[in-house]
Amino acid sequence: MTHFDRRDALKILGAGALAAGGSFGLPGAAFAAREKEMNILCWEGYNSAQVLDPFREKEGATVKAESLTNDPTMINRLRSGESKVWDLINVNNPWARKVMYPEKLIKPLPKDEFMPFFDKMLEQFHPPYRWAMSDDGSELLGMTQRFGPYSYVVNTDKISRKTAEETGWDLFNDDSLAGKYGILESDDWNVFNIFLVAGIDPFKEHTPEEMQTFSDTALKVFKGAKVIGDIATMNQALVSGEIDLHLTGGTYSVSPARADGFPEMRAITPLKGPMNGKGGVSWIEVTSTVNNPDLSPLATEFLKYVQDPKVAHTVAFAEGTFNPVAQMGNKACFELFTKDELDAIQWDSLEEEMARSVEYDIVPDYEKALDLMNNAKRQRS
Amino acid sequence: MSDAALGAAGTTTGESRPKGRALRGIPAGVRCASPVALFMALGFLAPLLTVIGFAFAEPRTFTVFDSFTLENFAEIFDPADTVWMSFAWSLALALLTVVLLLFVCYPIAYGLVRVFGRWSSLVSIAFVFPLFISENVRLYGWTLFFINHGVLDGLLAQLGLPGPDVLFTPAITLFGMVYTYLPFMLFPMTLGLSMVPADLVEAARDFGASRTMIWREIELPLAMPGILIGALLTFVLAAGAVAEAKILGGQSVIMISHDIEIAFTYSQNWPRGAALAVLLMLVIGGLSMAVMARLDLDRILGRR
Question: What span, in angstroms and rounded, lies between the C-alpha atoms of A184 and A70?
Answer without folding.
Answer: 12
